[in-house]
Specification:
- It is built from five helices and five strands.
- By secondary structure, it is an alpha/beta fold.
- Strands 2-1-3-4-5 form a five-stranded parallel sheet, sandwiched between helices.
- α2 (33-42) runs parallel beside α3 (59-69).
Length: 120
């Protein structure tokens, strides 16, 4: 399993990637939509975890862009701004929706559920 974490908070995604690696899960990260798209063009990812609100490109817009590059990729959204509108939009567009601060156990459970749903 190979994940891409995308959030404008570099400390958050680098820490999550490190914690996932300690659990045997390969995870790369990007801090903006352009870097994320470059990583997806360069390699195959099973799933991307996207921040809903980032400067320049929203998580929803980035999801559409990444889907065009890798049609079979799965997505989970995360946000620090847990509005009802974001929850509805994110839940409708992705296999999971997490509110920051994200516990590593919750992230792993959401990733496993999203990938299992993708196989079914």
């Amino acid at each position: 399993m190979r994940l891409l974490l995308v959030d404008d908070e570099a400390e958050l995604v680098s820490a999550l990637a490190e914690r996932l690696a300690l659990r045997g899960i390969e995870a790369d990260y990007a801090t903006d939509g352009d870097a994320a798209a470059d990583k997806v063009r360069a390699g195959a990812y099973d799933l991307a975890v996207l921040d809903m609100k980032m400067p320049g490109l929203s998580g929803l817009d980035l999801k559409k862009k990444l889907q065009r590059l890798r049609p079979g990729m799965r997505f989970i959204f995360m946000t620090g701004h847990g509005s009802e509108e974001d929850f509805r939009a994110g839940s409708a567009e992705a296999a999971g929706y997490l509110v920051k601060p994200v516990r590593i156990e919750a992230l792993i459970a959401a990733v496993e559920a999203a990938l299992a749903a993708g196989r079914g």
